[in-house]
Amino acid sequence: MFGMDWIDLGILLTKVMLVIAVNFLILMIMELAERRVSAFMQDRVGPNRVGPFGLLQPVADGIKFLFKEEITPSQVERTLYWLAPALVLVPALLTFSVIPFGMSFSAFGREITLQIADLQVGLLFIFALVSLAVYGTVLGGWAANSKYPLLGGLRASSQMISYELSIGMSIIGVLMLVGSLRLSEVVAYQTGSLFTILPRWNIFTQPLGFLIFLIASFAETNRLPFDLPETEPELVGGYHTEYSSMKFAMFFMGEYIALITTSALLTTLFLGGWDVPWVDEAALGSWGVLLSLAAFAVKTGFFLFLFLWVRWTLPRFRFDQLMHLGWKVLLPLAIVNILATGLFLYLAP
Amino acid sequence: MIEQMTDMTAEPKPMHEFIYDPDDQRMLLNFGPSHPATHGTLRLLLELDGERIVDCVPEIGYLHHGFEKLGEYRTYNQTVTITDRMNYLSPMNNNLAYILSVEQLFGIQVTKRAEYLRVILAELSRIMDHLICIGTHAMDLGAFTVLLYFIRERENIYNLFELLTGTRLTISYVRVGGFARDRDIPDAFFPMLHKVLAGLPAAIDEVDRLLSHNKIYLDRTKEVGVLSKEDAARYAVTGPCLRASAIPWDLRVQHPYSSYEDFEFDIPVGAIGDVYDRYLVRMEEMRQSIRIIQQAIAHFPDGPLNVDSDSKVMLPEKKEVYGSIEGLIHQFEVIMPNRGSRAPLGEAYVPTEAPNGELGYFIISNQGNGPYRFRVRPPSFYHFQVIPLLLRGRLLSDAVSVLSSLNIIAGELDR
Q1: Cβ <8 Å between B142 and A319
Q2: Residue B347 pLDDT > 60
Q3: Contacts of residue A224 in chain B, CB cutoff 8 Å?
């Protein structure tokens, strides 16, 4: 099959399993972190009863969700109602398949890349999948056939579409610099240093693009201050108001996985991926591989914490203000960024 | 569906006339009675065009307890326990408003010391009310952390109330002629009060930094839910909501009660009466309340706390009850329903400045040992009426912002 032998297939399957397992592990950590970090910020204790330091709280939550009554309201459009949670979770998980999370190394006489698939159109693939995730939210809101979810679904569709545009425009600058959609090349481009003191990360060459991408990714992942599709105090829970049990949990898992993927993507695109500045990882052998994995984890962890930090600090936007920000501020800025990058590339040798 | 009620004198349409019309693009949305943003049980029937509110009908009655009727079957002192269940965020202000009317009916002048203690507790209650009002308001706008910063401070005040009164939420501390306990204020009270007051400004300033200049918060609150001066007066809006609409009316100054004339404090006034002004007025009122409490502590009078038991309204000290025949007779005179401390024939009403606005208890006596009829003037009842005025033409998100800024307490709204 495509010139693969059993070892190749084994390696690939191992990587797939590893990525999914690690994603779910981080998901559980995030679930706990969300509650413990918010508790820390709000001068509370937080959940600390299940297991040592409350570490088993996510397990308890998961078991609770599994045993909750599965309610399918009588008025729902059944097929879509059942499909919607999966439509949120699956694309979010798939996105991680093209993100390089460590330096490649040789084993079994092969070059093993720490990336499931190094697609030529890696970035396009990601945006295709992220757009798919919108369907889950929108269909979930529509299929529930209830007023609050409908409003949530409506908000989700217009919010995500308008921010997807900004997010897509904001990385064009990066693409112009790198000259490739392949994510491994995006990382490779960012190794080395800039003006000898700074690492050559895209955050320094594309600060505006980074800012737009960061803000828009808050909207893409439905996190406060852009959590308008669910807005508990307004829409009671928005698109997932009518969901219960594991279907409800899947929306949440999808949200967190999307959060992890977005953080990983931010790291890859703007923070040099697994690159450790001023260190030549290749010279360090297997330690270099571990170092690159650690660097990737730390950078992604930083963004994950940032998402938590912002959520527990800021109030949320109103719908019209959100659209205003998306269409009249971020989108023009992204276009300016593209023009500026083009001008720079034209003038600079 | 709902006709625009431009004519204010027009009869509102009855509920059953809101009939579903499939061809109409507009949607009827039940905002409550069970909704995360109502913080209680009240209902707004919203007519939406997309997300825009075309019209709004507030409906009351979901939390009706029959408090006023209950009061007719209780003695004056027993009724106190009903009052702090109306606005459970500021129990002392409810206790005070009720007991002032009763004392006016009886013609009793309580001691200066009791008045000062009542002022201290009432101002603490006011701070508590504002803390929760701003906290839940911020929470509804998404800033959940603000609520918990304020809950922490309220917890300190609760602990203080627990020390003094034995209860935390429904304190029911006042009695006709003074307070419920025959013992004096515990020694630990004032040191603890100082500690509570020391912590408050820091928390208020912290929230000030989090919200007052926050661009997102300003966008959500400025020029949202503007209540004009004229409308505020026409709808009998009182309290911080009235002052936010640039009318400097505060009953503590205009009609002082319980020695409020002894204290020096400012009345914060808003500029245009939007949600942001109401927030600012409440923030400043908390600071002014701290000022009042500090003055009350500095000039706290000595002497007895309760009126003399010869007045036949106050229970005598337990030592007297068990030690002398007069004391025992006094005790029975006050306690026994067929004897009791009977009020003279008449009516009484003392308006007070509760955290939400004017709160008063109108009491009619037919010489019984409890009110013949009593009627509450709860500020929330009047504020609830202005909601359609503030919401028409706004977005659904503004409903949350406006509702929480008016601080509608369902307990006192429906009584």
Answers
A1: no
A2: yes
A3: 142
A272, amino acid identity: G
Of A38, A42, A225, the CB nearest to B216: A225
Res B362: pLDDT:
92
B29 touches chain A (CB under 8 A): yes
Chain B interface mutation, best of A314, A323, A329, highest count of B Cβ atoms under 10 Å: A314
Cα separation, A26 vs A303, in Å, equals 13
Spell out the domains of chain B, with CATH numbers in brackets. 73-107+110-224+239-306+346-375+397-406 (1.10.645.10), 308-343 (no CATH)
pLDDT of residue B11: 58
Q: What is the mean pLDDT of chain A?
A: 83
CA angle in degrees (0–180, nearest 5) for A268-A270-A276: 70
Q: Is B142's CB within 8 Å of A225's CB?
A: yes
Spatial CA neighbour of B78 closest among B183, B176, B178: B176
Question: What ranges do the domains of chain A cover?
Answer: 68-347
Q: Interface pTM (ipTM) of the complex?
A: 0.83
Q: How far is CA A230 from the centre of its chain?
A: 18
Contact B390, B225 (CB under 8 A): yes
B303 vs B242, residue with greater confidence: B242
Strand runs labelled E in chain A: 102-107, 110-114, 193-194, 198-199
User: Which of B345, B391, B339 lies closest to B365, judged by CA?
Assistant: B345
Predicted pLDDT of residue B172: 86
**Residues B117-142 pLDDT 10s:** 999 999 999 999 999 999 999 988 88
**How far is it, in rounded angstroms, from Cα A176 to Cα A343?**
11
